[in-house]
Amino acid sequence: MSFSGSKFQYLSLNRPWLRDTKKGELKADAIAGLTNATIVLPQGVAFATIAGLPPEYGLFTAIIVTAVAAFWGSSRVMVSGPTTAISAVLFASLSSLAIAGSEAYIALALVLTFMVGVLQLAAGLAGLGGLIAFISHSVIVGFTAAAAVLIGVSQLGPALGLAGGEGGVMHRVLHVAAHIGDLNMDAVIITCVTLLSVIICSKISRRLPHYIIGLALGAVTAHFLGAQETGVKMFEPLGATLPALGAPDLDFGTISTLLPAAAAVACVGLLEAISIGKSFAIRRGEHYDSNQEMVGQGLSNLTGSFFQCYAGSGSFTRSGLNAESGARSPMSAIFAAGFLTVLLMLLAPYVRYVPVPAMAAVIVFVAWKLINISEIKHVLVTSRSETFILAATFLTGIFAELDFAILVGIVASLSVFLNKSAHPVVAVGAPTVVNNRRVFMNAELHNLPECLQIRFVRIEGPLFFASIEHIERAFRRMEEKDGYKTCILNLKGVGKIDLAGADFIVSEAKRAREHGHDLHLIAANPSVLNVLRRLNCLDILGENNVHAHKSEAIGVNVALASDAICKTCTVRCFRECDGKQSP
Length: 583
Fold this sequence. Notes:
Blueprint: H1 16-20, H2 25-51, H3 55-72, E1 79-81, H4 84-94, H5 103-125, H6 137-154, H7 156-160, H8 169-178, H9 185-204, H10 210-225, H11 252-284, H12 290-304, E2 313-315, H13 316-324, H14 331-347, H15 356-370, H16 373-382, H17 384-399, H18 402-421, E3 425-434, E4 437-442, E5 454-460, H19 468-482, E6 486-490, H20 499-514, E7 519-522, H21 526-534, H22 537-541, E8 546-547, H23 550-560, H24 563-568
Parallel strand pairs: 5-6, 6-7, 7-8
Antiparallel strand pairs: 1-2, 3-4, 3-5
Helix pairs in contact: 2-3, 2-4, 2-10, 2-13, 2-14, 2-15, 3-12, 3-14, 4-6, 4-11, 5-11, 5-12, 6-15, 6-17, 6-18, 9-10, 9-15, 10-15, 11-12, 11-18, 16-17, 17-18
């Protein structure tokens, strides 16, 4: 099946990696897949618990979503499936509509997953992959940190043998504090043993199945303590070991209710997957197509909704482990899905021996690993705008709804982008010598002498309706500082000019001529020149006032400069000044 030459080529079964993968590489993919399967077995149960779903739903997601996303995605090593962030958003979105774990809740989760798949698939086929670049990475950092805090706090009750509580972070903390006198010491011991085991094993080697080891030691501890007799809860047996085929219950009322949550989950999933996929593609020197990844994620969730899966996305932990384990192609993720199916059938009967506090300890560890401390420090130190985005996203997730936090983060991210677009750099340049080369630098920042008759101005950013007010203010400040001059306006850093931008150039030309000066442009980009001609800007400015290079523009304007002023000038700013009469 081929859709060459069409956007539907993204749906083709003839994936490029199928031709590139060599038979000798399949062994490495199989080993990486087996390692990944042992890690995701307890992870899938933990993530489903976070999402408020029966444990088997996390495992089904790690089978179906993983395989489909690997086949149709763009990354060669990224592994998709259940993730903590999406699990937390799903629970935050659905827990107010139905009781977690109930049939109604499960039905809503499947409909939500179907909608997420449709939205992601439509975005990919529409070629919207480039829009992800406009959303700051700080949104994901802040959102993930907020999700991690919510997840960790939600497990405090189970880890201490207390009732879990409901609501956001503060409600859960207050609930635990109010019932701290009822904690179960056996549950606390099991939690500590499991958590320490997982931490120690993860320090020894990332390839160790540390979650399985931790849960096993937690189960052994519970057995020796006789924890069930003291009220420690154990996991319910899995309802099924293999996913069953069934269509989501698509009702118009349900769809309209879930649409905001579906949009939030779809956005979180795409941000996660594309950021992970791009990072690994850059490290490995591989091609990456954001639109293809969108299609892969959409198809995986759409398909998964028919096989008892909830929404998934790329997993940085599993993807990193996959790469470290020697994965060569997406077959490693497909192998992982197959091995997980076998492990699930073999180990399903033993789930009932896992104490709830042990799983709570694993989830707390997962939540802690989600918080990227070094990245947060980097953002706080380097950028105030990115700090604003991170803080807005994080604080919204902590004090409001988690699904609303991603929307706030996106709005904050786009607001910062638009604000920067509306405030391009407008600076006066002057020549100076750096490393025996003559270059133009910011005259004000470097305290460089300027020409008395010619002002050399460079704009870095778009010259459009939103930036005109800022640019005009900058021009007026220049005039207030050193009066009127002929202006050479360098447009090489201007990527966009609209009608308002063209009108600004015309008005500045007329203003300069009214005071006995002129305006010249440096513009070599054909698209910029075409826009200026189409908007009739050059008819007023004159073709002779447009130059391809700054040397040409400076030469023309120095020649036109007043000899009387040049005669008394001691600056001799430009090389072309040598042709004028010295003082």
